[in-house]
Design goal:
220 residues, two-stranded parallel ribbon, 4 helices, Transglutaminase-like cysteine peptidase, 24% strand, alpha+beta, globular, Transglutaminase-like_Cys_pept, 22% helix, 9 strands, signal, seven-stranded antiparallel sheet, C8orf32 fold
Length: 220
């Protein structure tokens, strides 16, 4: 499902509970708890991502020694905002049709592209900036208009944050109105999983107040 992502065109020490094996929707958690997206079960990778990995093998490489969650320091938040803002402004939004023309695929840093190109470009640049690839996962979502969309999810010590070409804001995943369908695997960037939801107590993560800051701040 959604191997063809019809991207919207806009300018721009706790017990873990896993729910909703086929999709995850934002919901209210226990008071003081932070919701994280969970990889529930293996699923098919988007076909265009398979082709992307053939074209850009280094962007699909995995290092199990890397951390899978980054500290959300002020400098990291500033980097996320800068990359999100710059890529959103540099790539002109277009609707791409993926079909028999094999020249059309997910592309890093094109002059014009769709949500897939924005997402893979942001991931590429953040890896170049020194963030661990395991903490940077592409994710397929469904918008309220029932349109397939691709975003970049950054796993931090303050929760999972979303970089999206439809907004300059860095938001926590539960502050979006998306239905979360599948996500790139932490263990192997070529593989994908169905999405679930897990609840972590604040003791498991550091300084949860910064999660609200990241969710609310917009790029200036």
């Amino acid at each position: 499902m959604l191997n063809k992502l019809l991207c919207p065109i806009l300018s721009l020490a706790a017990v873990i509970v896993v729910v909703s094996p086929s999709a995850a929707r934002p919901m209210a958690g226990r008071s003081g708890a932070i919701q994280l997206l969970a990889e529930v079960a293996p699923t098919l990778a988007p076909f265009q991502h398979v082709r992307f990995c053939i074209r850009y093998p280094l962007d699909c490489a995995s290092d199990r020694d890397q951390t899978d969650r980054v500290e959300l320091s002020p400098s990291t938040l500033k980097l996320l905002e800068a990359i999100n803002r710059s890529v959103n402004s540099e790539i002109a939004p277009i609707q791409k049709v993926y079909g028999s023309d094999l020249k059309i695929g997910w592309t890093i840093s094109p002059k014009a592209g769709d949500c897939n190109d924005y997402a893979v470009t942001k991931r590429h640049r953040l890896i170049e900036s020194g963030l661990p690839a395991r903490a940077l996962r592409l994710s397929v979502v469904r918008t309220p208009d029932q349109i397939g969309h691709l975003v970049l999810l950054v796993s931090t010590t303050d929760g999972d944050l979303v970089l999206d070409n439809l907004t300059p804001s860095i938001r926590s995943w539960q502050n979006t109105d998306y239905e979360w369908l599948k996500i790139q695997s932490r263990a192997d960037a070529r593989l994908w999983s169905d999405v679930g939801r897990k609840i972590a107590e604040p003791a498991d993560l550091k300084a949860p107040a910064r999660l609200q800051l990241a969710a609310q701040r917009t790029a200036e």
